[in-house]
Amino acid sequence: MNSTRKYEMIVGGLVHDAGKFFQRATSSDSELSRISKGMENMICPSFQGRYTHRHVLFTNEFCDRYLINLPRGLNKEVITNLASYHHRPGTAEQEIIHKADMLSSGMEREEDEEYAGGPTAFRKIRLRPVINEVRIQGQALPEKGSGWAYLLTDLHPEKPFPFPLKDEWGTSGGDLTGEYRGLWEGFIAAWGGNRVADPWGYVNRCLGILEHFTWCIPSATNVFPDISLYDHLKTTAAISACLAEAGNSPEPFLLAVTDFAGIQNYIYSIRSGAGGLARRLRARSFFVSLLGDSLVYRVLRSVDLPLTNCLISSGGKSYLLLPNTQKSSEVLSQVREEMDRWSIKETRGEIRVNIASVPISVGGLKDFSSSLDEASEALRREKEKPLKSFLQAGGKWIDFGEILEPLAIPDEGGLCDSCQKNGGVMRDVRGKPVPVCDRCHEDQEIGRILPKARFVAFYGGKEGCF
Predict the structure, then answer these.
(1) Which of 7, 78, 313, 342 is deepest in the core (most CB within 10 A)?
(2) When comparing pLDDT for 117 and 170, which is higher?
(3) What DSSP string describes 358-372?
């Protein structure tokens, strides 16, 4: 599948349930155009003589009104059809979105939420935090109507905290259409400002906007509402991309996991004698965080997939869902070699990057916890062979003397007084000359700038923002 069609699939998966947000922000069908209303018999399934899943009409309306400023080459009509027909697919590509939607929601068949609990119940139910379901062994279930839920609000450091419920599932006996409406208006204003011309960057910007406004929206209200619409849209797009690329493979997915070793030693093995200890610690912690992000971007950019396919990234470990293709395997192998080489050259092997992957089937995606265990075991085996791609050639170990260059100590300097690992030049520290290496000096400068920085941008060569 060519890149243009793939990104149409990804955008289609990313907005396929935007109609749920739109529908909950309106009290009736009055905002639907005549065209969208007339599509009921084409895109809505029917059950017992009535049309169901009518949120797809709002998805069609959303695409028609707001799918603007698309990158050159992406076809609005194609994306609209992919998104709108996900409950009643008529083509192979629409079937992919349908299948991805089902896999993302963890169901083979999703009951219509508009008729679960009454015709307006889906406008009354709030998102519930997962912590509601955590039980200490032997602890009784909470009483009916207890627990916590999230407000319908944009993502802000002071806002993403749940509040205690009074009624079952957070209905509170009240309609949430007004709250949805305020959130929807902010979302539409931000969505219209996405003018990124590159498809990769465009989807990533879409993802950021969706996270900001749909993190607090339940993806479904006819089941326990603990999955956000943002997470559902993101994973649907990721699965769609893999299914489109891998074709009819029995194992269409490749679950890749990346991890770093030696981080603690790298961050804390600096001395205070050279001054600026707090700044250096700040800079090194920041560097390690960026290193994980840059590795994710490097892999995804190389396989031409956006950040939708980064499922988890936390604590130095990341899980990527890739199509199980030769290209994906080659990219992972190439990146592993690049990072091993970087590790030796820049940190003398102190920070080591581990990358492992396992192919998984549709069943493996459904039983995702087992697939995570399998990937973790593959990563453990990789950790037992650190820097393998750089230390071996032709099935033989490379002479260690050929790997590390001799430590150069400048004539006007000495061993760095901060890290004790590199040669340093004499620099003024608290009024006296102290040998400090270039890396530690750079850490101090970055640590000084960081508290005043407003954002960080990634770049790839001269091509613009990476």
Answers:
(1) 7
(2) 117
(3) EEE-HHHHHTHHHHH
Residues 242-299 pLDDT 10s: 999 998 899 999 999 999 999 888 888 888 766 688 999 999 999 999 999 999 999 9
Contact by Cβ (8 Å): 10, 240 = yes
pLDDT in tens, 388-426: 887 777 677 777 666 777 788 888 889 998 888 889 999
Q: What is the mean pLDDT of residues 12-36?
A: 95
pLDDT tens per residue, range 306-335: 999 999 998 889 999 999 999 999 999 999
**What are φ and ψ of residue 162, in 5° steps?**
-70, 160
In which region does residue 463 sit, left (phi positive, over 0), alpha (psi from -120 to 50) or beta (all else)? alpha
Dig out the tokens for 42 from the structure: 């084409």
Judged by DSSP in three states, 153 sits in coil
Parallel/antiparallel/unpaired status of strands 317-323 and 310-314: antiparallel
Cα separation, 248 vs 236, in Å, equals 18
Quick one: pLDDT band at residue 173, thresholds 50, 70, 90?
Answer: low
**Is 405 in contact with 393 (CB distance < 8 Å)?**
no
- From residue 335, alpha-carbon distances to 115, 342, 344, 354, 403 in Å are 49, 10, 14, 10, 19
- Exposure of 257 in the CB half-sphere (CA atoms within 13 A): 21
Reported as a single tens digit per residue, the pLDDT across 81-124 is 999 999 999 999 999 999 999 999 986 545 666 655 556 788 88
CA–CA dist 223, 169 (Å, integer)? 10
Q: What is the pLDDT of residue 145?
A: 56
Q: How far is CA 199 from CA 59, 208, 309, in A?
A: 21, 14, 15
What's phi and psi for 253, nearest 5 deg?
A: -115, 145
**CA separation, residue 169 to residues 128, 340, 427 (Å):** 8, 50, 63
Q: Is 71 left (phi over 0), alpha (psi -120 to 50) or beta?
A: beta
Distances (CA, A) of 431 to 192, 441, 445: 55, 16, 18
| Both tokens assigned to 215 | 């993190």
Of 122, 112, 14, nearest in space to 66 by CA: 14
Contact indicator for 108, 102 with CB cutoff of 8 Å: yes
8 Å CB contact between 261 and 163 = no
pLDDT at 172: 47
Record the pTM.
Answer: 0.90
Cα separation, 440 vs 280, in Å, equals 7
**Start-to-end CA span in the chain (Å):** 23
Spatial separation of the C-alpha atoms in residues 393 and 447, rounded to whole Å: 39
277-302 and 438-449 are packed helices; what angle lies between their axes, rounded to 10 degrees?
Answer: 90
Residues 233, 13: Cα–Cα separation, whole Å: 7
